Structure formats: structure tokens, C-alpha cells
From TrEMBL:
One of its GO terms (cellular component) is membrane. The keyword Membrane applies. GO terms for biological process: membrane lipid biosynthetic process; regulation of response to reactive oxygen species. This is ABC-1 domain-containing protein. It comes from Stanieria cyanosphaera (strain ATCC 29371 / PCC 7437). Belongs to the protein kinase superfamily. ADCK protein kinase family. Residues 156-537 form the Protein kinase domain.
Amino acid sequence: MSAVSQTSQNSVNNESNSDSNLAINRPETGKKTYRWNRENYSRTRRRIDIWIFVFTLLFKFWRNGKKWSYSGGFTEEKLAQRRKAQAIWIRESLLELGPTFIKVGQLFSTRADLFPSEYVEELAKLQDRVPAFAYEQVAAIIEKDLGKPIGQLFHKFDPTPLAAASLGQVHKAQLHSGEEVVVKVQRPGLKQLFTIDLAILKQIARYFQNHPRWGQGKDWIGIYEECCRILWEETDYINEGRNADTFRRNFRQENWVHVPRVYWRYASPRVLTLEYLPGIKISHYEAIEAAGLDRKLLARLGAKAYLQQLLNSGFFHADPHPGNIAVSPEGSLIFYDFGMMGQIKNNIREKLMDTLFGIAQKNADLVVNSLIEVGALTPTGDLSPVRRSVQYMLDNFMDKPFEEQSIEAISEDLYDIAYGQPFRFPATFTFVMRAFSTLEGVGKGLDPEFNFMEVAQPFAMQLMTNSNGRNNSTIFDEIGRQAAQVGSTALGLPRRIEDTIDKLERGDLRVRVRSIESERALRRLSAVQMGTNHTILIGALILSATLLFVNGSINLAAIAAGLALVPAWALLRLYRKIDRSDRMF
């Protein structure tokens, strides 16, 4: 929620013009009333609303796989169109369900390894612009948390919020010392709503985890716990303040990055007071040009700032969308909203080396194993299909020079591989990939010729040549490295053989053998058994209809005969399926 950047025109327009812009960006109260925002909204009604959404969603998912539900016959295009319409409905439904589900939807917009691309693209549009809550509630929260009324704490306090979001809203104020600040106030009753919603979401996660199809190869309980952690962290404004301080310290040597200062005297878990740093929203290209700023330079600075976060400190902004980045009149970048941050472990550079070498050598085993060590992949099953997919991608999509690669294209390839495979991407990895894609999009908006990978190339080269003295610049270094790798493999071979024998003795080693002919026979046997059940049911219903008709119960006989049509139709479809299967083999 970055209200400051929304008033970015202040820095380039005259006073009257900036006032009009400020009025335009203020939240519109009363335009839309959501049920969750009502004071008399009961817990029972809340549970009913959530479960209605869940069951409706499950029905839509079930219907997608039923080819008879498509008018005019099933096609992939019709499935894609239906998914697109469903994605829009999901986005609107999440907005109706309120803060918890808005945030969950935004988190799921990074999980293209879990959901089809149609859903991910639509969830990425999910904006938490919701009605503002009353100034009286703002005053009550501030007075309760900070121990004094607003008049004693602030010299001026604008009762109309600059912006309102699902978690809270922002007001402009002035301290008695004359300093301009913005005050973030959490939405009343938010934690109680989160408690209710997360308890229900846990039940939903358990249902999906135990589902024979949707739970296969997916750790829904782990995903739920990950969402819980992120959501609770975002509700703690003290934690956000610490994040802002850490982020500012990491860029203290850079004069081209500005971060708002936290006023800890006016902070609590539900109230956060920050330095007022107005700027031009980085996607307001006309305003940037009017200020005389270099758009190409700003595009490169945005990418450079994020690469420094990842490679220098490992502490990075997990939600760098255009609303959270602004530009000062001098051309410096201003970052806002530090509720969602990511942390990369200190030893990540060493492990990333193996990933880079694996990509350079087109070695899928090395890439997959290094990604598991890094934590970018969490294996939940047999990874053989994943390795084959990665090898295919390396062989077919990595032929271009590094600086000509596209982050968006690489992300799409990764997520295409990930969807439906027995592993999941942790939040840190998906946050990084989404941030890269977002910054690449912002950069291309500023400069159509911008290429994120071109900016990243010097960082990657420095990482590959200088990290831990490992240098791949000469053939002798490469020969030495490969010799060391072969020696290490040879020395570890007896141990691996011994581990394999131990697993065989314990019964922990599984040998998978696939026989197409036996699988076909088993499928046919299962289908014949199902056909027998349908036939018995048809016979029973017809017999019942005959007895009822003989005894004069014509209406009941008609109902029984009508019911017999259902298994008869299912039996006909089953026989057609068996016939198609036989022709295929």
C-alpha cells in the first residue's frame, strides 16, 4: 500500500494541479459495500460465504474435466476460454471475501507451479483497493495503541486517507516538530477476521491434501503454513518498520536509493509512522519525462537495485510492483511498503554457482540437484520427469546468449515445467521470479529496448568468476574443476553402493517397472467391472419399473424407468471409451 507514490505529481506540477491529483487518488468511500466490511457480519455467515465459494469452485474444477459439459464438443480452446472466465470469477469472488482471501490470491498469483496460467494471470491483476474505514475508528486505534489522542500526537492529521487497502489505510500528517509524515493504520478487526478465515482455510487445505487427484504431489498443508506466516507478518507493523530500517541500512552507501525513515515513537503493531517521501510513480512515464528524467537510466537503476538486494545482502523487497516504487525529482528511486520481504541464506552464492555451471553445461542433473540444495525446489515425489523437462528446456531454450534472454520467457518455461509435476517452488523463489518479471515489465515501459538480463550479466559474471576463488575463465581451470569432480565422484562411489545395498536390505528402495500391455489389461478389467455394475443397476431399475407398472403405480414406474436411463447412458460412454482404447493399442 504505497499512498505516497500515488500523489507523485506533486513533484512536477504546480500546487493547484497537485491538489487535484491528490483528490483523484483518494479512495472512494461508499462506492462499493462488501459484506465482510459490515459491523454486524457474523461468524456463521462468514463460514457460509467461504464454503459456498469453495464448493462452487470445486464444482467448476470438476466440470472442466467433463467433455459432455462443452456445447458443441470439447476442444482445448473451449477449455482455455472456460478457465479464463473462471479466473475472472475467482478474482471477483476473492475481492468479495475480503482481506484474507485478497492476500491469499495475491500470493497464489506467484504460484504458476500450482495453477494453470489462466488463473495466475488473472490473480496477478488482483488489487486490494477496498473502501476506507471511518476516521473515528482511525482515531480510536491510534489513541489506544499510542496512548494519546491524535491532537496531542500530531500537529496536523488529514482525516481523509491517501489510500485504502485490505490491511489498512494511510493518512498524511504533520508532527509538532514540523516534519511531514504518513501514518499507516491497520483495519479494525483484521486479526479476528484472519483468525476465523485461516481456521477455515486449514480445513480446505486438508481437504485438498487428501484429495486423490488434486492432492497428488502437492503439499497443500505446507503451502497453507507458508501463507499463514506471510499474512501474520504483514499484520505486524513493528516487523514492517524493522524491515524498512534494515532495507535503508543496506542502501546507506547508495545516494540513488531512498527509503522512508521510521518514527518509532509513533509506532505500534497496528500503527506505523513513516517519513513522507513524495515521488513520481515509476509507471507514470509522462510525469517522468515532464520532470526531465532519463527513462533509460531509471530502467537500469531499478534492475540494479534489485540485483544488489539479492546478491549483496540477500534481503529483498518481495513485492516491487509499480505502486511500491517511485522516483524523486532528482532521479533517485524511492521504495515503499516493507510488509512483504524475502531473505536468502548467506551461503546461497556458493550453491548458485552449481546452478550456473549446470546451465552452462546443459546438465539437468546438476541444475535440479543444485536447485534442491538452494531451496528453489522442494521435492515431493519422483523427480525423473522434472529432470527430463529441465534437460529439454536446456537443449531447446538456452541457445541464445545470456544477455538476449528474457526473464518472462524463462519464468514461463519454468512454470510450464512445474505445473503438474511432483515438486513445488518455495515462496522465496517465486517472489524472486515474480519480482524479476515485474521489473522487466517496468523497465520495458520506461525503455522499450531494456533487457533485464543485459543488466544482470555483469553481476552473473562477477558471481561466476570471483565467488570463493572459483574461476571458469580458462581451459586449465575447467579441466581442473572437472578432474576434481570426477575424483570426488569416484571416491564417493563405494559409499553410494553401500547406501544402495542398505536400502535394499531395509526395503526402502523401490524399483518401478512399467508394462504398457499389463496397464491396458488392468484398465480394461476395471472398465468391464464398472460396466457390470451399470448393467446390474439398469436391470434392477427396469425390473422395479415393470413391477410398479403391473401394480398400477404408473408415475413411480415412469420415474424408475427414467432413472434407468442414467446408468444406461454411462454404460454407453464406457463402451465407447473401451473401444477407443483398444484402437489406440
